[in-house]
Design a protein that fits this description.
The structure is a homodimer of 93-residue chains.
Chain A (H helix, E strand, L loop, with lengths): L2 H31 L7 H23 L5 H23 L2
Helix pairs in contact in A: 1-2, 1-3, 2-3
Chain lengths: 93, 93
Amino acid sequence: MDIEVQDTYKEKAMKQLHIDAEKIAKLIKVQMDNLTMPQCPLYEEVLDTQMYGLSREIDFAVKLGLVEQEKGREILALLEKELNVLHELYTKK
Amino acid sequence: MDIEVQDTYKEKAMKQLHIDAEKIAKLIKVQMDNLTMPQCPLYEEVLDTQMYGLSREIDFAVKLGLVEQEKGREILALLEKELNVLHELYTKK
């Protein structure tokens, strides 16, 4: 396999996953800024749905061999950390 | 870009999307065989979640340039047709 092309798709995949993870963080931040309570079931549902969508993208990328499983887990773990920080900031308001 | 390698990832992507679409059809068939009513909210929720997951995979593949948008739409449309047939068969039982 041509290593250069392999890297192009791999880079694209990682970039897109990071964009999508960041989109979730932004969405949650907007919800918090607009005072939608984290205890609200709708908030939890939106978050669950978005996290599920992202994890499906990651699984897909891993199955295609574009992203290592460990890297995929890292993206989700980082996002969860970010959401926890946001959540903490929000509840301290 | 090396056309051969491009095709490998593209083929893998299409193959994986078809596998995942077929998985949804099978899941729904199992639910119907076990007499879980299509009117049941849980059935609808499972179906919605699975369809959402697949559409996220397709969007991801399209964004990476692995799958053409039209092909992605076709996969979803074919699955919907298949589910409609299953649904019809079930309600005629």
